[in-house]
């Protein structure tokens, strides 16, 4: 499982998690706000910014009834038709170039999720460094094949897909030329419950598909994302908003700038804490070994006097023989006069 390069960043176990800020529709159809989102993502420490590239017409039909209308009481988007929702949420294609330019100026990798063939062609013209396949598109094998044929790294969310469907999607990608694949464990409910995250899937998925694994996280807060690092998440994607109170399309389950900055910090610390399999004191701990218990002379002794529980003590610090030698030295004699507080050593016996 080799490292994957996206722009200036390497993705793999020897590198901090690659953190993606997902803009989605949180720009509120205001280009100035979209650019401020880019600036805030960079300031928060994200490594990448991601858009979604589609139009309402490439996503669905303009129908306001039946399965084309959202009437689920638990949905954030209840009362909208699918067409209306995608009209509201889409990022106009003419905005992509200025958003990409601002992101590049700020050192962010910037790419997008295409939803149809025309979006892939458009994004190729912008020179994206990689592609993302959304959860609801991981069954669109023609789209996956087209994206894979570009030869660029492919990040794919697993939400809603069965294992058999993932096998089919990964096979389609690899057969079409994908050599660098990241699968993101994803729960496609908004917001998602932590109990539905099933993070133990991460190492299993990485081994099963011989790929890098990560998390596309729709839970509230940062705890689930931070926990995922311990299970091998190399990429973490979170939706990003300037202010949840502005109630943009995905704001309810998005992180605000200060929260995103904390996510970046905490996931980096979690990655650092993983380290490697290690026993024994670290370099910094070696100085602390002197605070372990050891054997000390507990009262003044004359040469030839025997060591007993009355004149020998197991105390801190750790300059004397280790406590495991207590039974060995009891009854032995000291070869010189020693004062109380002398660390016991073999040369005294």
Model regions low in confidence, pLDDT < 50 over at least 5 residues: none
CATH architecture of the largest domain: Alpha-Beta Barrel
CATH fold type of the largest domain = TIM Barrel
Q: What would CATH call the homologous superfamily of the largest domain?
A: Aldolase class I
- Shape descriptor: elongated
- What characterizes the major β-sheet? 8 strands, parallel
* Terminus-to-terminus distance: 58 Å
- Share of residues in strands: 15-25%
Mean pLDDT, to the nearest integer, reads 95
Q: Structural class of the helix and strand makeup?
A: alpha/beta
Tell me the domain tally: 2
Which series of helices and strands comes N to C?
EEEHEHHHEHEHEHEHEHEHEEH
Output the number of helix runs.
11
Question: What strand line-up does the widest sheet have?
Answer: 5-4-3-10-9-8-7-6
Structural Rg: 30 Å
The CATH class assignment of the largest domain is Alpha Beta
For the secondary structure, the number of strands is 12
Measured as a percent range, the helix fraction is: 25-40%
Keywords: Transferase
Organism: Geoalkalibacter halelectricus
Domain AFP-like: 294-349
Protein name: Pseudaminic acid synthase
């Amino acid at each position: 499982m080799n490292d994957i390069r996206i722009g200036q960043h390497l993705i793999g176990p020897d590198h901090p998690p690659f953190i993606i800020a997902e803009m989605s529709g949180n720009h509120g159809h205001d280009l100035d706000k979209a650019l401020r989102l880019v600036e805030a993502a960079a300031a928060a420490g994200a490594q990448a910014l991601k858009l979604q590239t589609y139009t309402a017409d490439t996503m669905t039909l303009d129908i306001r009834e039946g399965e084309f209308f959202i009437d689920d009481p638990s949905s954030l988007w209840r009362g909208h038709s699918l067409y209306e929702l995608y009209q509201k949420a889409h990022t106009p294609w003419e905005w992509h170039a200025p958003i990409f330019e601002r992101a590049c100026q700020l050192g962010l990798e910037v790419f997008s999720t295409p939803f149809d063939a025309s979006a892939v062609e458009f994004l190729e013209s912008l020179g994206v460094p990689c592609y993302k396949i959304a959860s609801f598109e991981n069954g669109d094998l023609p789209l996956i094949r087209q994206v894979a044929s570009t030869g660029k790294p492919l990040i794919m969310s697993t939400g809603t897909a069965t294992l058999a469907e993932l096998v089919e999607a990964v096979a389609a990608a690899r057969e079409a030329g994908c050599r660098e694949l990241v699968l993101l464990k994803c729960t496609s409910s908004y917001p998602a419950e932590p109990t539905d995250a099933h993070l133990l899937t991460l190492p299993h998925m990485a081994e099963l598909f011989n790929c890098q694994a990560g998390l596309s996280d729709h839970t509230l807060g940062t705890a689930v994302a931070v926990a995922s690092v311990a299970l091998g998440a190399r990429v973490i994607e979170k939706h990003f908003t300037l202010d949840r109170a502005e109630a943009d399309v995905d704001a309810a389950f998005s992180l605000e700038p200060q929260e995103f900055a904390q996510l970046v910090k905490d996931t980096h610390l979690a990655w650092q804490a993983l380290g490697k399999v290690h026993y024994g004191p670290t370099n910094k701990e070696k100085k602390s070994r002197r605070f372990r218990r050891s054997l000390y002379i507990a009262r003044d002794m004359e040469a030839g006097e025997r060591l007993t529980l009355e004149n020998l003590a197991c105390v801190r610090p750790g300059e004397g023989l280790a406590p495991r030698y207590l039974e060995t030295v009891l009854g032995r004699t000291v070869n010189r006069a020693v004062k109380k507080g002398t660390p016991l050593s073999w040369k005294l016996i």
